Amino acid sequence: MPGGQGSFREHMFLLQKIPGVEVVEVRTRDELESVAGLIIPGGESTTMALVAERWGLIPELQAFAKAGKPVWGTCAGMIFLAESAEGQKKGGQSLLGGLDITVSRNFFGAQINSFETRLPAPDCVKSYGSTDDFRAVFIRAPAVLAAGPEVEILAEYTLTPEEAVVHGREKVIVAVRKGVLMATAFHPELTTDLRWHQAFVDMVRKHSQQPDKVPPSLFQNLGRIPNRPPDLPVYGKEFMRAEQM
Predict the structure, then answer these.
(1) Which single residue of 14, 81, 188, 240 could bond 196 by disulfide (Cβ 3.0 to 4.6 Å)?
(2) Is 187 a residue of the active site?
(3) CA angle, 184 then 168 then 159, to 5°
């Protein structure tokens, strides 16, 4: 879905590094029906919702998620998968739902407040080896304020003392999973760490019961893989540097 820091090309770039993965873009109902897994990238969530409504894809996307097909939402994609969202623009926006979470839109502030940190890796990420933590890039990011009892919490971020005073809490949830739905407030695609993408690919493989090949996953908008995201000047220097092992 177009707009903002969607980084769909970076998602594609990392997925193509995983053997057996076929990556396609989705713009139409037929293309959506042809895929076995869906990644909803970041961007301006209200604009994304309006475009999806204009193309008539909201009901199709909701049906895709409710059919039990794996879906991963990053940043704005997390908002799309939430059952409820705070801080929406006037008039609100369409939500796909499926995850029993309440998210705060732009919890971490404007793009100038973007930051990165290292967080403890959940078991589904640690199982692929490398380090016990991972690099988390937050760009005008949401956060999960509340999660239902059936939602698995994959990662939390501890707020700074100043942030804790402002928000009245010490930490927020930044990655969740429930069945075949997964959402992250950060952008794994803006690193060279494949493990989050490998975890999602395994979700798709398990669901499709095709261990040797993954049918297409989602992406929209054509374009060459850039050396760095051109719409993220905050992270212009050594953005795609190698991860610490």
Answers:
(1) 188
(2) yes
(3) 45
